[in-house]
Amino acid sequence: MRGVPLAVLLALALAACASPGTRTIEVSMTDALRFEPGTIEVAPGETVLFEVTNDGQSVHEFLIGDEGEQAAFAEEMADDGMAHDTDAGVSVEPGATETFEYTFDAGEVDLLAGCHEPGHYDGGMVASITVIEGSGGERYRLALPMER
Ligand SMILES: [Cu+2]
Question: What's the whole-model pTM score?
Answer without folding.
Answer: 0.75
